[in-house]
């Protein structure tokens, strides 16, 4: 029987040893992201045959493994067979979710038509060109540029990096945002995750920025550079009553802190109509698909 243990901040070095050799295309395979959702997704892990195995529960309560990290292709069948056995004995809903295409190809090569593979559109990541988010040029960004200009013309504001001095302000802003947005389920777990990130910011690799409007914290964002080409925006919260504040923090954070990458990953929409509309409105360069995998038996 595979023995799983809950994720903790002390596991960062171990996880990075497995994760760092790879260039992933999605947001899932970042220790910061896993730590953010460790409670919300009941994230646990095990080491099996020198391979990192991560087990999760989604917000629809379905359970699954993420794709194995650090496997050798010649040992993949033995590894996956062991995971199939665990899945069947423990009634997991899926064999794998959060699967990227390279691992999917390795699976198909071994198992042929013995697996049920589906695109997971609600979980697909929105990938943007950094230059688009900074410049907001052309007709397709006309509305965003107008909101940005309206904000900088109307308000007295300052943007500052998130440091220990303003963690309390950020936590207060996160709580206020949560309570304004029916603070339960996914949103409540996100609040818990934000608090955990901020409490452990000196141990994690993220970058953050806060915006004060009329000397009151009104927005903050958290992101990280995961490789030389891509950064991920994990958190972005703002007072929606302040016109253009979301447009301002989106553009300014990338411009000031993430300007040395090519792509910005703004994560998935979870099938939420309003979130999908908002992410499409920024004209993604690519929607990076993830896949789910079930066994046929």
TrEMBL record:
InterPro entries: Acyl_CoA_acyltransferase (IPR016181), LPG_synthase_C (IPR024320), UCP018688 (IPR016732). Residues 22-293 form the Phosphatidylglycerol lysyltransferase C-terminal domain. Pfam families: LPG_synthase_C. Gene3D superfamilies: 3.40.630.30. It comes from the Bacteria. SUPFAM superfamilies: Acyl-CoA N-acyltransferases (Nat) (SSF55729). This is Phosphatidylglycerol lysyltransferase C-terminal domain-containing protein. It comes from Clostridium liquoris.
